[in-house]
Amino acid sequence: MEILDICDELGNPTGKTVERKIAHQQGILHRTAHVWILRKKENKIQILLQKRSEQKDSFPGCYDISSAGHIPAGDNYGQSAVRELKEELGIVVRESELIDCGNRRFHFEEIFHGRLFKDNQVSKIFVLWKDLEEKDFVFVDHEVSEVKWLDFEKCYQDVKENKINHCIYIEELDIVKKYLRVQ
């Protein structure tokens, strides 16, 4: 059973907690950490996408953020991001390697596996620079079935035009794009 902090609109814990399952049944506001892994290859910026396993409770089999996860009660965004990177992709990083690009607030409702899923969250968006090959990632907890690198601009267009099966919000790629412009 995963216990999450209930948070306010800015992502600050309220002092109350909720079971993850209940949060998604009732649409209770909670926190997540999203990490977009980037690298430079042949003078182009590439972004790593993970493919969610078919067993995931939402968006099974879709391409998604490099690594993402819920923040357990009592943890902070950075701690959780580091843990998720190890659990999902088998990579070990320090919290200081994560580049904070800001928060994103969103809500959606959809049917998965025959049940209504209400997601209501504040996500901290991070960028992580890691020049690894696809074979270097290890899918420790079987939440991820594969990863692939795409040139950032191609990924952006493919998501915008729905050319790949994905669950990526273009607003998140806009946040990464904004970060890249100031680099």
Could you explain the architecture of this structure?
- Keywords: Hydrolase.
- One of its GO terms (biological process) is isopentenyl diphosphate biosynthetic process.
- The chain has 4 helices and 9 strands, in the order E-E-H-E-E-E-E-H-E-E-E-H-H.
- With 183 residues, it is an alpha+beta fold.
- The chain is globular.
- It has a single domain, classed as Alpha-Beta Complex (Nucleoside Triphosphate Pyrophosphohydrolase).
Short précis:
The chain is of the alpha+beta class.
Please tally the helical runs, counting DSSP H or I stretches of 4 or more residues. Answer: 4
Q: How many β-strand runs?
A: 9
Structural class: alpha+beta
The low-pLDDT segments are none
Helix fraction?
10-25%
CATH architecture: Alpha-Beta Complex
Computed over alpha carbons, the radius of gyration is 16 Å
Shape annotation: globular
CATH H-level superfamily: Nucleoside Triphosphate Pyrophosphohydrolase
Beta-strand portion reads 35-45%
Question: In whole angstroms, how far apart are the ends?
Answer: 41 Å
